[in-house]
Every structure is written in structure tokens, then in C-alpha cells.
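[recover] target loaded
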């Protein structure tokens, strides 16, 4: 999945759009998504879909998949948001629909909790759509350049770069070890899969650290001086079409949100 995201970010149709503009645009919409009403959040989701699928030409299957996977964490917390466990004597039947009763306790579902969960899901989905826009249209090298332009500490950038490289080493090592186990007759049954996966996990860290030491020795051999130098940021020409659409769209959404707040709409 990481390799697929990396490939899409380097080959999308918005590749030549200025990285700082894309990052600022997504950050502004993320802030608006967090603070706005559900109707504005739905509009931002639709607009981000246009930017990612139509303008950047990202396959819709990949875009939906990347949005859906983080929502699984929200789905795991959904029962805690919508369900309440109360003593029957506290009048729980009046506070919502009783789903289950046992040992003088009742599990209730109220309309207010369901509406709160729906609002929270729309906000989460809108913020995720902004983050997905950055993930799929901004390559990691340009993202590091943007962070450097924003004066992020060099130590943090180096740690992020090393960890990003470490993920690819981990995946490559795991895939090779898995292929070697299958070639030797492993993973043939459920019990064998459990045993082989346990062995793979135990030896994976050792193999990965060996390859990581090889990368470190390669850096030293190439004159590493305790500082990873990154390419300088180069401002790219910004297409007027994207620039004005982004500015006008954000202003319109912000004005609608201000009008909703002035009217007291929740």
C-alpha cells in the first residue's frame, strides 16, 4: 500500500502544481472542515473528490480505499459514542430507546447520540479528504521541502526521512522472508500459518536491523556528516486555473459558514 501511494504521488496530474500552494490549500480546508457545519464539510468532501479524482487523475478505487481504512478506527469507537449503559432505576427508558436489559441495567440508544455520531463522522471524513489530497498529490520529497520551508527542526525532518526509508526496508524484508517460507512449504495449513508467522515476526526485526546497518554504513562511506542534506525548495509556476478556483472556492465556503453562524444554524 505504501509503495502504491508513493507511486501515485509521483505520477499524478497535479505533480507540477506548486507544493507549498497544495499544502497551504489543504491546510486551510482542513481547518475549515474542523470548524464548520456538516453542510460545509460535505461540500469540502465533494470538492476534494474533484481535485483528487478528476484533476489529479487518481483512480477512484485507490482514493476510496485510502479514505475508508482510517474510518475503521472510527467504526471501532462507534458503539461507545451511540450506546449508553444506565441503571434501569435512573429512568433510562425515557432517555432513549432501550435495546437490552440485564441485571437491572439497560443499554439505550438516543437520537442525540446518533446525531452527534453522524456529525463527527462527517467532520472526520472531511478532514481525512484534505489529508488524502496531500498524501496522493504531494510526493514525500516535496513534502519534506515544504516542512523545511516552514522552519521545521532539522532533527525532526531527519527522523521522518529515516523512518520513511525504514518502512520500505521493513516491507521488502518481510516480503522476501514470506516468499522463502512459502517456497519451503510453509503456510500450508492454519496451524502452519500461525507457526510460520510467529517465526517471521521474530526474525524480521533482526533481518531489518542488519539491512539498516548496511544503509548506515553506505551513508558513512558517501561522506555522511551527521546531517542529511535535502534538495532546496524550488517554487513552480502556478496554473492560474487552479489558483483562482482554490481561492474563490475557499472564500465562498468561508462566507457560507460565516452566514450559517450568523443565523445560528447548528
Amino acid at each position: 500500500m505504501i509503495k502504491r501511494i508513493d507511486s501515485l504521488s509521483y505520477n499524478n496530474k497535479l505533480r507540477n502544481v506548486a507544493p507549498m500552494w497544495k499544502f497551504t490549500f489543504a491546510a486551510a480546508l482542513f481547518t475549515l472542515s474542523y470548524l464548520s457545519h456538516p453542510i460545509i464539510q460535505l461540500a469540502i468532501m465533494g470538492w476534494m473528490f474533484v481535485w483528487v479524482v478528476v484533476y489529479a487523475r487518481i483512480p477512484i478505487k485507490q482514493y476510496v480505499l485510502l479514505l475508508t481504512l482510517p474510518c475503521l478506527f472510527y467504526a471501532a469507537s462507534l458503539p461507545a459514542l451511540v450506546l449508553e449503559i444506565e441503571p434501569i432505576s435512573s429512568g433510562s427508558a425515557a432517555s432513549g430507546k432501550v435495546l437490552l436489559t440485564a441485571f437491572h441495567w439497560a443499554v439505550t440508544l438516543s437520537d442525540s447520540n446518533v446525531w452527534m455520531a453522524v456529525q463527527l463522522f462527517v467532520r472526520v471524513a472531511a478532514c481525512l479528504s484534505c489529508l488524502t489530497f496531500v498524501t496522493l498529490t504531494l510526493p514525500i520529497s516535496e513534502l519534506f521541502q515544504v516542512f523545511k520551508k516552514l522552519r521545521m527542526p532539522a532533527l525532526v525532518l531527519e527522523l521522518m526521512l529515516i523512518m520513511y526509508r525504514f518502512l520500505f526496508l521493513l516491507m521488502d524484508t518481510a516480503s522476501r522472508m514470506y516468499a522463502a517460507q512459502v517456497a519451503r512449504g510453509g503456510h500450508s495449513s492454519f496451524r502452519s500459518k500461525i507457526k510460520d508467522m510467529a517465526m517471521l515476526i521474530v526474525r524480521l526485526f533482526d533481518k531489518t536491523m542488519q539491512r539498516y546497518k548496511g544503509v548506515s554504513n553506505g551513508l558513512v562511506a558517501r561522506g555522511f556528516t551527521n546531517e542529511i542534506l535535502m534538495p532546496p525548495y524550488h517554487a513552480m509556476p502556478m496554473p492560474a486555473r487552479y489558483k483562482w478556483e482554490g481561492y474563490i472556492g475557499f472564500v465562498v465556503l468561508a462566507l457560507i459558514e460565516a452566514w450559517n453562524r450568523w443565523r445560528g444554524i447548528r
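[recover] notes: The mean pLDDT is 80.
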